Batch of 3 targets.
Target 1
Amino acid sequence: MSEHKRDTYGILAEFTETPAFYEAVGKVKDAGYKKFDCFTPFPVHGLDGQMGIGRSKVPIFTAIGGVTGFCTGMLITWYMNGFNYPLIVGGKPFWSPIFPFPIMYELTILLAAFGTLFGMFATNLLPRHNHPVFEYEDYIKCGDDTFFLVIEKADPKFDLEQTLAFVESLGSTKVEVLKA
Amino acid sequence: MAEISPDMSFAATDAASREQLLAKVKPVDVPRKELVTGDKDFHWVTEKICGIPESKTPRWWWVCFCVAGCMATFTLFGLVWLVSTGVGVWGLANPINWGWAIVNFVFWIGIGHAGTLISAILCLLRQKWRVSINRAAEAMTIFAVVCAGIFPLFHVGRVWFAWWLFPLPNANWIWPQFRSPLEWDVFAVSTYGTVSVLFWYMGLIPDLGTMRDRAFKAGKLIKAWAYGAFAMGWRQSNRHWSNYEMAYLLLAGLSTPLVLSVHTIVSFDFAASQLPGWHTTIFPPYFVAGAIFSGFGMVLTLMLPLRALFGLHNLITQYHIDCMCKIILATGSMVGYAYMMEFFIAWYGANPYEGFAFINRALGQYAWSYYIMVGCNVITPHLFWFKKVRENTALVWIICGFVNVGMWFERFVITVTSLANDFLPSSWGYYSPTIIDIFTFFGTFGLFSVLFLLFIRFLPMMPMGEIKAVMKAGDAHGHGTGTQAVPHSTTGGGHH
């Protein structure tokens, strides 16, 4: 995209120390910003609370997967061994929930695991191979040893001058206006 | 939930009452081990771990790869010979209709268990030392399951009909028989393999993102594209990490009952039969303990050479080796206990066939294998009681070799001795493997090594994010000083 069409995406601040970064994130939340994000080389313990992010929704997907797996196990064992082609083996009943329990157990775990992985993708809106933050020249550093704090332009409180002044007061090592 | 009265709260509001509380409780200083030694910072971790797949392929890698590739062809040869000739090329004959195939299957599945144990159970137990070894151990799990799968797949003889094991309608509209433990195995092992891959892949995503960015920066676009395709556009955002951590915890929670169930179900192959020596209730926990025992043996067998070759001494410290040795000691003791308990129950149960099966194991025609098993599994792990032994890396490596040999013989003893001398002396026999049996098994070590070598060549061997999170500098509450990792203070407690 040509340079003149590029719009401001947000303001990015770099931090190199975990505690300083952690404090700064709390200040951003307290200042009332909603649309901001942190980019960290590792999951920082307690940062979710500091950012005001609620509990993850991934368990819902896990539960749906698990229940589906269990019911699938019930259904296939009943249909195959009890209904469609009943066989008597060792005088056992055509179908009971006991003898094929390992099947239901394993399918519960299998589909719950798929639900978890795809739930993680769904809640994170992945795959998404492009994002404005990738445009930042030093983006590679957030996979290494630097923490980024990005306040997006989409935030209702965003004002280029005021927000810039606010971010500069947070004690970061570098502040930059991010174009996208 | 009942309301908590204010005086039950431990959040002492003012400093004075906090002091009072501490004087009352008298907290003891618990020294915490450093998990990354040598005052390293985050950047060092990234460079060290990414540096291995990014650097030029070392010569020893090519040598090992060629040797392992040649070994792997033995499996290929054995399988081609089997399929083109028939299962008769294996040493199976009445009454021993299960021989090396099932022994090797149980052995390889067991090897895999340590990987899932490290990534799942130790995660739930908050054992932070797991982070530097879990990636490689999970890879080991997957490759071990691949090797394990070969044997039951080909023991059916006409391997092109193996799909009859899946719940699909076959030509005669006959469905799988879900009362059979062998059918449970199909579900257990395929679920185990699949969930292990999912778990491993999800753990890799953040690191693949880092590899992608580094390859892109270095101008290696094909590499960047390949890593990027699998990284799914991961961008280290905390909103991602939040869901990722929840998903990771859930997968750990799902894998824990899974790893325990897999070897339990494998043991049902034996325990659900009526044969003396197999039909015992101790099998599920005994098999699981044995699997973890042999799995940790294999983790150390692989990790100690890698630690030396890549200079990972700051990441895999003596503390890590100690922890693993202690797990081997604990599970080895459980296995030894199970051997004793089997004998006790055989006597106490007063079943003459059961009693004979166990006396025959120790004194009969397979006594040699029984004593190899007892020697390797009961005696050698007890050397790990001694700190001097745990600190001697070469000795640890040798002992782990014994553990692996011993556990293979355990499966051999269980499978073959019970079948060889069952109820009727007129139908007794003696089993020996053929050269094809030996080739096929020997080759799986090559296959395993090929896969593992490819893994260490192309993927980051350790989860960088998780390692950084357990470093002192990763603590958000200022217990470290910035990105510089400082030695841990001796005061335990504090946060989390």
Target 2
Amino acid sequence: MKPVKLPYTLMVVSLILGFLLTVQIRVSREMVNAPPLERSFELTARLKNLTAEIDGLMQEKTSLTQKINLLEKGGKVAEEALLAEIDKNRFWAGATEAHGPGVKIILNNPPGFGTKSELFNVRDEDLFNLLNELKAAGAEGIAVNGQRVTALTEIRMAGSKIVINTKVVYPPYEILAVGNPDQLKTSLENGIVATFREWQMEVTVTKENNVILPAYDQAIEFNYVKPQEAK
Amino acid sequence: MMWLAVVGLIIGIFIGLIIPLGVPIAYSKYLSVALLAALDSVFGGVRANMENNYDNIIFITGFFSNTLLAGILAWIGERMGVELYTAAIFVFGVRIFQNLAIIRRHLLKR
């Protein structure tokens, strides 16, 4: 019952009260800005759902990325295969340089050229026959005086000159063929070369370890022929 | 005597402003009820002082137990689905007005 005690206690209590009051006022002010409590619960639930959804999407993304990588790899492989195919086809068409074992044939007009009649000079038919024999003996690539023989190559007489791939070639004719050297040489020696020699033409056939064939150097243009649609 | 309480209040407000102590919004409801109980206790103490039957122990225990109980009851009510804190607000509000009225009369009588 001492009135003296009152002030201090009251002061302490008032102090606590003021402190609580301030905190509460601050929180209330925040509450005005913040959404109501129920909404916060709802938002929390939604946040959980969305987080789960994000996780799922991230997983989906990683799997899709893996798929993309696989597909890109597959694309690279396909591209390489196509390029290889193109290179192979160019090689087959004779559009690239090629080399391999084979034979070298030097074919020249009979000696005393110009004085004798030109009846026994090398003509286009002789070259045809020679190329035919070579092909029959399994030659896989042929060139005459630096002109590659392809499916489009023509060999014809223009006056007294022989024209191959629209280029004039002069004797002595140097025919290079890639194939089995022994086979090529034997089949020539036992056939057409013997005939050439009978006609006084100068022929030598030598086996070569490495024959280098030039590339077909004409522009290939097909204006009329089209691929036939497969039925 | 009264001015000491006012000084305490001012100091408390000042401390509350300085210390950036926040209460989660979820608990603000309970704090408000506790605050009302505290206010009621203080006015009750002042009134008892004026009526010369002030007991320090009763005042202190009353202050803290009322404050805590009000908060706890509000919390329990929330859990039970009964809006108990409105009852607390009502009761404490009425008592605060009563106490204030009595204090006013004492001040006017002198």
Target 3
Amino acid sequence: MLHKTIRPVVLLLGAAAVVLPLLVVLFGTFKTLPQLFDSPLSPPGSPTLDNYRRAVDEGGLGAAFTNSLVVTAGAVLLTLVVASLAAFFCARMPGRAGWAVFGVLVAGLAVPAQAAIVPQYVLFDRLGLTDSLLGLVLVDTTMTLPTAVFILGAFLRTIPEELYEAAELDGAGPLRAFRSIALPLTRPALATTGIFLFVMDWNDLLYPLLFVRSQEHRTLPLALLDFQGEFLTQYPLLFAGVVIASAPVVVVYVLLQRHFVSGLTAGAVRG
Amino acid sequence: MSSTRSARSRRATRALWLFPVPALALYLFFFAYPTAQAVQYALTDWDGYSTTYDNVGLRNFTELATGDDVFRNAAENNLKLTVTVVLAQTALALLLALYLVRTTRASTLLRALFFLPTVLSSVSVAFVWRFVYDPDGGLLNSGLRAVGLDSWQSVYLGNPDTAVFWLAVTQVWFHAGQMMVVYVAGLQAIPRELYEAAELDGAGRWDSFRHITWPLVAPATGIVVAYTTVQSFKAFDLVLGLGGNPPGPALDLLSTRVYTTFSNNEFGYAAAQSLVFMALIALLTWVQRRALRRAA
Amino acid sequence: MSSPRSLDRRAALRLFGAAGLGLAAAACAGPGGGSGATSSSASPAALATSGTPEGTVSFAHWRAEDKAVIADLIKAFVRKYPDAGVEQDIAPSADYQSTALRRIQGSKTGDLFTAFRGAQFQQIVRAGVYAPLTGTAAVDNYRANLIGPGAQAGVQYGLPYQLVFNMPLANTDALDKAGHTAAPTDWDGFLQLLDDLKTKGYTPLAWPGGDAANAGQLLNTMVMNNAPTDDAFTKIESGAYKVTDDWFLTTLEQYAQLVPYLQTRATGSTTDAVTQLFAQGRAGLLATGSFQMAGVRALGAKFPFDLLAPITTAAGKAKYEGVFNTTFILGVNSASKVQPAAYAFLEFLGDPANAGVYANGTGQHVTVQGVDYTNTDLKAVAPWLTKKTLLAPRFQFLNLDIRTAVENATVAVVGGKKPAQAAEEAQRVIDQKRA
């Protein structure tokens, strides 16, 4: 019964490996840099919100937070609309066309973003969409479309044909079928996908890094990078920024956990 | 009756064609078209800011293939990283899933905990782990000193031979929980009766795993392996955060190599590199699919 | 996070087919069409220095730690020119190194902008982004012998604002304790100094080997006297010299001799960690540069500073006592819509009083003449302004890949690699990248 003892040991080690670094970060936000280096593992002696205050004031995290919210909300909504329409087509179109469109859209999952950044930068720049929140919404929407189409497509294919047939007999066109049958049934899937997109858009660094130039359009991950002073990283400040930037995602995760799981396993169980 | 129906369904089909238009328009214009432009850039020596450039044909590609140790080194690192992460993360995800497949309060909590790192941003994770690996005041060495294992202290990312493997550890910490969830779903779909029957036949724990669990969880394994491959192959923010910008040879990957070449204002060469990078991902994915199907 | 892919084989085939079609069907304009600049002619328009300073100037730079001081200067500037304003646009230095040109082309940002000495400055010149400053009043505020890095072919394109010494920072208390009041004049003397520091329980030389950006700073002083010419690294890039030449092999061997005097596991050390070690008074020397004085003070260090470079030759053979660098090159954007205001702010920064506010507030020396240094550390290091120093060799590299290869050879030697082998590997990369 070796197994009986191994299991708790493995799980305990795993839990420690996840919790410890995060705890050190959390504690670190209440320390000075020397304190952090001297005893990273100890709980903070005198809790002070100084690092958070400085992170918000000096790092301009307030404005960045708002930008992240605007960009994320815009991109998530836009992606859900266009992706659900496209996924509906992929699920409903008879013959090869549905699969072909699905294939084209999902192909993006395998393409590294670096493949397109140079021409993408040039294109957005010519359209005047660099250094604008709209540009970020558009590029985030584009880059998360494959994921959204993939998850929604998997859900939409599970809707039985009979439901549509009944509607078609009543003379419903595709738009009504989409509105009155597909949408109500995929509401949980939409929530799941929305949360997925939220995490992706909220954490995106590459595009803000490439596109955003001015302070006023900075998103959170980019503002975080600014915490690295030129020659000295202020770990405690950086950690405060990490906590501020991660808090919304973690809260959403804790509240809506099951959606994360169902989105991830959308295609996993079907053999 | 049937003719009107087919006419109507033809009309319906035509209307249906409008549905993917917005998605395709966005995707083709903002993503596929720029990606294709990379092909054109790759045939030039454009530096990214001059108004003139020369078409150099396939020279960028021949240079990549025959005389670029730096690129080859990045490709090797990338391969080491991907192979390590795929093996370690798949094994760990499956182990955790097996331990946590039953839905009790404790395992639900642990599942949530292991999944947590996945929702953080790569920048955050990189900063956290920079501190973990810091050989002087960092978490790992401080921890080892605290428990009297001074001789176990290491230089981590500072050793060029092992730096990539430490990067792999961070990547596994970051995403193992995500893959565990896929495995849990796969495991939960296996009918209990199979195990009960096997137990009646006197099969041990290992036998049931070999003859029931492993074969039946194969679809999930396929997804975990394919996804982990692409994910670790594309690692970028994490490397910049951990290895600096540009990262040294020990942590240079294909994604950072493309970015550094781009920073060096060799746009044409960077585009050629990015295409090779894409081709490698496609190839790797294809090889895996074949291997997995053969195994199934 | 995105979701896993599960496509059957046929779908996968179609997928690649479709992607291939997409690639084949796309036709596009030449790369030149996308430079982002409306017209990036190589001969930029003359600078508009006249005209009222009005409008908001975007000031692009990479010094996050100078933000507050610059903000104070901006307030004073706006009091002087009420119709003008300045917004700071700061990017971390590594990003600035790689993206600045694209950010400032077409002047969507960076009406006034900074550049690193060397590769970046030259690229921006070639791209025609600088409005030349030759003959403007702003230039007269600077020491003529220090602003060379902002000029090319006789034209002053930009004005390097910061003067830094890229040589080890010394804890003079520790040096006193180890019995050294004067800097060693030869290599053996330097090793002796390190040995005495070690005996007294100090980490003799704290070196951030794990941080590529700063690990290479030590190379400046290690080669300043070993190299046969002052432009040795330029010649490495041109192929005239090789890192397998004797002078560089000697340098690498000297690196190997330093190993016992570096902190343990030095090849992984971050700048933060060694700065911390030095700030706590536990190290004799910090192998980065004068630019870290303010940072070390911020960590609570109370001991006095000096600079101290290793002399790598025999006594009397040394040409230089140290190295300096002028960087943070200020330039006005040729495409700026608010050029008069951008120029006015440039001139404002060059005023000795304002430059003094900047210098004393940030702990950096400046290239402006007649600045009164009141900051203790700046005063302590001031004698170096008149010593025999060489413009930092490390920044002669124009190709980042070649620079990385050379600097990495030094890190590899510290990590235990044989100098000859490290040099050979680096030379291979250099030969490939020189093409």
